Amino acid sequence: MVKNISSLFVLLFLLFSCASDKVATQSYKTKYVIVVVMDGPRFSETWGDPSHAYIPYMDSALSPNGIIHKQFYNLGETFTTNGHTAITTGFYQKINNSGQELPSNPSIFQHIRKNPSNSKEAVWIVASKDKLAVLANCSQSKWKDKYLPSTDCGVNGIGSGYREDSITVKNVLSLLTEKQPTFLLVNFKEPDYSGHQANWPAYLNGIQSSDAYIYEIWKFIQNDPFYKDKTTLFVTNDHGRHLDTVSSGFVSHGDGCDGCRHINLFSYGPDFKSGIVSEQPRSLVDIHATILELLHIRNAATDGKVMHELFKD
What are the angstrom distances between the C-alpha of 165 and each of 177, 207, 276? Predict the structure, then answer.
């Protein structure tokens, strides 16, 4: 009798011990994620400008519904491919900016596609810059050439040249309507393209046009039954630009000055708070970690940290 009671106690102890080791998976309303990158504006011409003159749609329509981050940074190389690589892999990497070098680590696209339920058309990169097609793959042997997303970059892929952002937004809206992807990364080349042309009015206009295109995507999410109340949207930049007192000023970027590092992030989703301004320092790799959390991807490495301050209590 004592032996049986003892055996029963041990069995119950083991059962409760195993149960206590299990971590409950948080249930989220988010089923789909869209990341939009406005390429290369300075913080001083976007959320850092108290008037928000060049981002009227994000200011009036988006900001009351989500979270503006005032202390958001690129802490790696402040170039286009590098910034996008940080978002999509969760690691800062010194990578060739021309699209001729694969990211070292597997991307979030590949992790999503590894799930057999996600077809190639469920995961997309749509970019005005052709070189960003390189984000689809990685050099890590276990992942290279596997679980690749669909791409629509530049005129016709790497080496084909940039295209107009007006074409990109049109393609994005068609894709959302016809393919209904689970995960989508969007790149608008402006205002970076005009900044490199040393054209200040065109640079400012590039911010305004990207703001308008972002609003078009926002409206679609709000009005489409498939995506409404189930979609998380991140709007960010890959890098900023030099301060006026550094090198060529707004014309270029690529160093560690605050103008190049201090960038924007707007976060919106059914699991996030709204009408909030966050002062907590965060960086590009934290977008990656937060998406992993939302989509319950537990087997992906990242240097990012989940932005828990975004989530509703």
Answer: 18, 11, 29
